From TrEMBL:
Keywords: FAD, Flavoprotein, Metal-binding, Oxidoreductase, Zinc. GO terms for molecular function: (R)-2-hydroxyglutarate dehydrogenase activity; FAD binding; metal ion binding. It comes from Marinobacter daqiaonensis. This is D-2-hydroxyglutarate dehydrogenase. Homodimer. GO terms for biological process: respiratory electron transport chain. The lineage of its organism: Bacteria, Pseudomonadati, Pseudomonadota, Gammaproteobacteria, Pseudomonadales.
């Protein structure tokens, strides 16, 4: 089939007006936040049901048409980029909450439901959906599950996969599978849910999901602590975790905070400067918990780990303190940051971070390094800012060399080159730093079973 025939047939498979070919739409739907690859999709298809997705996938198999899934397009690995004339399947119109079960505390959603929409629905019903991150206002559930998104609450609530009771998927062969039937206990062989979670649409497309909810947290309270040294992040974490269940434990460098403060929307938490800061969140369910938190703070100060700190006294103040961490990405965006999302086990974080910083600084002393991340679960975000006088192409070329050094260190510490953003196109060439050759062969074998014709998000994660 030629391109015109493909587009004409697609229009018969979905509702009128649900196939877009305008250049502006192709540009918008063909990329994600990476901006490293020029989008070049053939067309954008906006199905409204699992049946329509299935029809498109079967057509793609019969005519060897490559498909790329598109959710909120907030990804940072180019997993949703269509750069080679693919047909994009966008889930914006599959955005309904289909069913709610108060007794089971589950909600059945289409894949295009926005994260904040799900969070708001849970809150309206006296419950809580705890997976949370900066892009919650635009990221979609299907994309979250396809990358197993984590975010700021992982230390307490885990990753996206921990909240999935069941999935509806359309496989690469065009079969519709109902996975796990929303059961809490189901020991009947392989749990195929977990193959599709984190698969970045390479095995098939998630079209619906049943998500678990939990109770709403009580009186969330935030502390920001100035740390005397990077190693003190672990001292403070261990001290607090012995006595208080933390809902978040984040960190950021002083350099990162300076960029946030320069925007003028947030104030410094205290006058004392520190090289690093920790942000702790916990439920202050009683005066006893607050007293315990203050005692632990004083203990950290006495041990020389913390130089200063502040604790929120209201919800407004807690939100303002969170802005110190959540506005970092926004504040450094004008500097064209090169982002890396890496992880090791928590105990290895300080030496791991120091080793990376030393290598980058030695080779590129003009590069400004911005550190922040979910240090409570071992996830670090390394951001290298482009020098203003350096051309973007030269900067990205140099960052490719940085990747090699960084991922050598990741491999030596038995860490991951991608903690939560996925592999996509950006990390594909580095997969061997985290996965063994045998593992990659098994991944390719699984891909062949579910997508024998190679139509589902081809070229992502690995090449066949």
């Amino acid at each position: 089939m030629n391109p015109e025939q493909i587009i004409a047939t697609l229009r018969t498979l979905v509702d009128d007006g649900r196939v877009l070919t305008d250049p502006a739409d192709l540009e918008a739907y063909g990329k994600d936040w990476t901006r490293q690859f020029a989008p070049r999709p053939l067309a954008i298809v906006l199905p409204k049901s699992t049946a329509q997705v299935q029809a498109v996938v079967k057509f793609a198999n019969d005519n060897q048409v490559a498909l790329v899934p598109s959710g909120g397009r907030t990804g940072l690995s180019a997993g949703a980029v269509a750069a080679n004339g693919e047909v994009v399947i966008a889930f914006d119109n599959m955005n309904r909450i289909l069913e709610f079960s108060p007794s089971d505390r589950t909600v059945h959603c289409q894949a295009g439901v926005v994260t904040a929409q799900l969070q708001a629905f849970a809150e309206e019903n006296g419950l809580y959906y705890p997976v949370d991150f900066a892009s919650a206002g635009s990221s979609q559930l299907g994309g979250n599950l396809s990358t197993n998104a984590g975010g700021i609450k992982v230390i307490r609530y885990g990753m996206s996969r921990d909240w999935v009771s069941g999935l509806t998927v359309v496989t690469g062969k065009g079969d519709v599978l109902e996975l796990n039937l929303d059961l809490e206990k189901n020991n009947t062989g392989y749990d195929l849910r977990h193959l599709f979670i984190g698969a970045e649409g390479t095995l098939g497309f998630i079209t619906e999901a049943t998500m678990k909810l939990t109770r709403q947290p009580t009186n969330l309270t935030v502390m920001v602590l100035g740390l005397a040294d990077l190693t003190n992040t672990m001292d403070v974490l261990q001290t607090f975790q012995k006595h208080i269940d933390l809902t978040a434990y984040e960190f950021f460098s002083h350099q990162a905070m300076l960029h946030v403060l320069a925007h003028g929307l947030v104030q410094a938490p205290f006058d004392t400067q520190a090289p690093y800061y920790a942000l702790l969140e916990f439920e202050a369910v009683s005066d006893q918990v607050m007293d315990e938190a203050m005692n632990l703070f004083e203990q950290c100060v006495e041990n020389g780990w913390v130089v200063d700190g502040v604790i929120s006294q209201s919800e407004t103040q807690a939100r303002n303190l969170w802005q110190l961490r959540e506005r970092i990405s926004e504040s450094i965006a004008p500097r064209t940051p090169y982002k890396n999302d890496i992880s090791v086990v928590v105990s290895k974080v300080p030496p791991f971070l120091r080793e990376i910083e030393a290598v980058v600084t030695e080779h590129y002393p003009d590069f400004e390094i911005i550190w922040f991340g979910h240090i409570g679960d071992g996830n670090l975000h390394l951001n290298i800012l482009k020098p203003e006088a350096m051309a973007k192409e030269e900067f990205f070329d140099k960052c490719q060399q940085v990747n090699t050094w960084v991922f050598d260190i990741v491999q030596r510490h038995r860490g991951s080159i991608s903690a939560e953003h996925g592999v996509g196109l950006v990390k594909k060439g580095y997969l061997q730093y985290t996965r063994s050759p045998a593992e990659i062969d098994y991944l390719r074998g699984i891909k062949q079973v579910f997508d024998p014709n190679g139509v589902m998000n081809p070229g992502k994660i690995f090449d066949l």
